[in-house]
Write a structure and sequence with these properties.
With 185 residues, the chain is α+β, with helices and mostly antiparallel strands. The protein is built from four helices and eight strands, in the order H-E-E-E-E-H-E-H-E-E-H-E. It folds into two domains: 78 residues, no CATH class; 91 residues, Alpha-Beta Plaits (2-Layer Sandwich). It has a four-stranded antiparallel β-sheet. The chain is flat. The two termini are 18 Å apart. 25% of the residues are buried.
Length: 185
């Protein structure tokens, strides 16, 4: 069993096995007037993030399900077995898809508007600049993502793009070195 787990239960970035789950739970509960005990949740939000304690990167290929950390099937092989790819690309979206394009939240809003949740959680992105064209915004980005081939990297970017995608360059980078073999991780 441990051999199966070791293939995916590691940081996709530095390969460390020194991980933690940050589990956030928020709920509004009515109080039973007879017993004083909280009743079932009226509004419950549960969120978990697995993070590497060595390099501090979130692990979007892992999730907390029930009582265990488990791999996300459509991501873990690509992220653990793949290599980093750097894409220079432009995503053109409707202006209404971007909440803010100036101020302190602009970079995250532009990234989310262009690449959705993967742009925020799974990719490392750098917004180079953006341009307004009537009712559309073109967001020019550098994106680092993990994939096993250039075709897969293109498919992942295309699947994440929230509008028209144009990739101007795509290059494979070397994976950061794994922790030393004598490390306890």
């Amino acid at each position: 069993m441990n051999g199966e787990i070791s293939s995916w239960l590691r940081c996709y970035r530095c390969w460390s096995r020194n991980l933690e789950v940050q589990y956030h739970y928020d709920a509004i509960r009515r109080v039973d007037s007879e017993s004083g005990a909280p009743a079932e949740g009226v509004d419950e939000i549960q969120e978990s993030v697995v993070q590497c304690l060595d390099c501090m990167h979130d692990q979007p290929h892992l999730t907390f399900d029930g009582e265990r950390v488990v791999p996300i099937e459509d991501r873990w092989e690509r992220m653990v077995a793949g290599t980093p790819w750097i894409a220079s690309c432009t995503v053109t979206v409707g202006a209404d898809q971007v909440e803010a394009c100036s101020g302190p939240d602009a970079v995250e809003a532009l990234t989310y508007g262009a690449l959705g949740d993967p742009g925020i959680r799974e990719f490392f992105t750098h917004v180079r600049f953006h341009k307004h064209h009537d009712d559309q915004i073109s967001v020019h980005l550098l994106v680092e993502l993990y994939a096993r081939s250039p075709e897969e990297a293109t498919e992942v970017l295309d699947g994440a793009a929230c509008g028209a995608l144009e990739i101007t360059s795509l290059a494979e980078e070397s994976r950061p070195p794994a922790h030393a073999s004598d490390s306890p991780h």
